[in-house]
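A reminder from the course coordinator: this example appears on the midterm review sheet, so study it carefully.

Given structure:
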């Protein structure tokens, strides 16, 4: 989940008891009014939503308040040609370079697709078991990798030399390791936040750190729902961390330096 504008809820923010459907229907499908297992999203400054429509093998753009979406990448049929995707999990819109960056998971590659009506994409990074892709303000790409249980950083000027910025390359549960990292958020200081799925935690890795800091260290949460499974996340300008708990069907907020989270949507209050 990515936002290229500031995310600025504060302590006075009032959260609605019920949500509003802004894309897709309550049942899955493959026409332009439906989604099928949507994964990563990107929201631009116009509140338009770009969605990795996983089982429809496409990226869909949903304009604010529209009833149907528009396919902007993929042809809806799984494959490995340059006009196809296969189970995309993550999408990032690079407005500066006018391209859509896609984690094409089943094809084990990262693709760059023209932002405006592109009929096919360009292979950006091959042979990578990617889960999520995002970008910082300096143009560096960050990708979570299943194979090495790491988050790596790349720059357009040299896509042959990745730099590991989280994890040590082996799966594990100590603070230097990750186990199946998935969704990412990178702040203005190049601090990396990562959903560490199998360890059931969210970690923060400050730039150049060899170890991460566990954000979701919450004994009460473990008691109330021990199967906590972090997925999408975002960080607001005040340092609060918002995490989708897909096992608990809820969104949880951890305020900066807090040791206990608060359910703000779904689940049980």
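Designed residues:
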């Amino acid at each position: 989940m990515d936002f290229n504008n500031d995310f600025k809820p504060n302590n006075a923010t009032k959260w609605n008891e019920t949500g509003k459907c802004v894309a897709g229907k309550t049942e899955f499908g493959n026409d332009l009014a439906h989604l099928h297992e949507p994964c990563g999203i990107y929201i631009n400054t116009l509140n338009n939503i770009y969605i990795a429509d996983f089982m429809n093998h496409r990226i869909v753009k949903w304009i604010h308040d529209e009833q149907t979406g528009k396919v902007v990448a993929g042809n809806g049929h799984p494959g490995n040609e340059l006009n196809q995707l296969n189970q995309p999990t993550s999408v990032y819109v690079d407005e500066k370079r006018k391209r859509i960056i896609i984690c094409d998971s089943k094809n084990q590659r990262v693709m760059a697709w023209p932002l405006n009506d592109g009929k096919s994409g360009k292979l950006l990074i091959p042979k990578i078991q990617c889960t999520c892709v995002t970008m910082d303000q300096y143009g560096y790409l960050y990708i979570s990798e299943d194979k090495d249980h790491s988050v790596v950083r790349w720059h357009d000027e040299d896509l042959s030399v990745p730099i590991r910025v989280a994890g040590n390359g082996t799966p594990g549960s100590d603070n230097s390791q990750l186990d199946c990292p998935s969704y990412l958020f990178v702040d203005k200081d190049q601090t990396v936040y990562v959903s560490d799925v199998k360890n059931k935690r969210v970690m923060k890795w400050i730039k150049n750190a060899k170890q991460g800091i566990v954000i979701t260290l919450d004994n009460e949460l473990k008691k109330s729902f021990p199967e906590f499974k972090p997925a999408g996340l975002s960080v607001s300008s005040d340092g609060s961390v918002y995490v989708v708990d897909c096992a608990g069907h809820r969104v949880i907020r951890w305020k900066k330096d807090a040791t206990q989270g608060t359910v703000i949507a779904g689940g049980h209050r």
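The longest strand covers residues 158-166. The chain has one helix and 21 strands.
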